[in-house]
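User: Protein folding is very new to me. Would you mind checking the protein record under this note? It all follows right here:
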Amino acid sequence: MKEFAGKVAVITGAASGIGRALTEKCLNEGMQVVMADIEEQVLFDAAEQLRSQGHNSILTVPTNVAILEQIEALCQKTVDQFGEVHLLFNNAGVGGGGNSWQATSKDWEWVMGVNLWSVIHGLRVFVPQMISQGDHCHIVNTASVAGLLDGVTNAAYAVTKHGVVALTEILFRDLNQQNLAIGCSVLCPGIINTNIMTSGRNRPADLVNQEPEAPPSADQESARAQFAAFLQQGMPTSQVADIVFKGIREETLYIQTHDEFNEDILNRAQNITTATNPLPRGLEGDE
């Protein structure tokens, strides 16, 4: 897909972060945009601000992307308003969870629902719509560089991001095997200046843990503070949006934002092919 003017884009997680930047990029490319987000007031405020800048082709649809019926409603409202869907960004995502055995069932359900099931729902609902249109379309699924590496973050987040990468790889093969005019990409961003560390603000009440959390240790507090500082110095979301559109135009399956992770990605592949156990994080350079 190379031409965007007059086409229709659907973006989940559109009210803030990468989703907000993708929304602005789509509008600047002359597209009609459907903004979906669970954070209703922030969604409405973002759309109103964009409309005040002269962007009038915006539809807002409050959406919990973990729920199939709400993704179905998102697609239907898009088609009712604009007639077609040409560009889908399965972008909504959250951080959270813990290690493999301490994360609760509700932690897993929340992160899996937003980060992975939402993409599954999006493909099952929107791909048939795109096929029925018969024209050029493209899908971008947001994963993370954590989906290309080993053991870099908490279990639920890493599992979902690896899942999105694998799902998009299979989607790419299936679309090509059927010779469909639909391209796809998986976005694997590195450190980006977003508010993902506060994504718990949008956690549904029924998935909030009832048991009080243990207070963080000094090491945990230090690690969180360091990561927050990294995020603030991260790549601007507008730059990510530019990289994404370049990838769409070039029909790139894997869209990365930071090439400094490539050595770690290659090390993981080397470990797999040589049956070598990875070293604990922080010891890779030690003898």
